[in-house]
Predict the structure of Tesmin/TSO1-like CXC domain-containing protein.
Amino acid sequence: MDPANWGWNVQGDKFTLIMMDNNPAPNILLNRIHCNCSAQCNTLRCSCKKYGLECTGACGSCQDGNCDNMNQASILDENEDCF
Ligand SMILES: [Zn+2]
Ligand SMILES: [Zn+2]
């Protein structure tokens, strides 16, 4: 898919969400994007991280407990919430 068609602003290799209402990510995106990482998900190799999304149960083996990109870890990432 082309992220530009999904409300994302594509600049080079960075994806920035275009502000729409107060919804940080359309549900359809949340349902579609998941990664297949085996480790921490703390780099942009993680597709969740790349799109600014938290990992969910749909993700890969990172969900076995190695993921740094899940809800409970976001307390440490307050800057990331300042869109
Ligand atoms: Zn990941
Ligand atoms: Zn993930």
Q: What stands out?
A: The chain has one domain: 3-81.
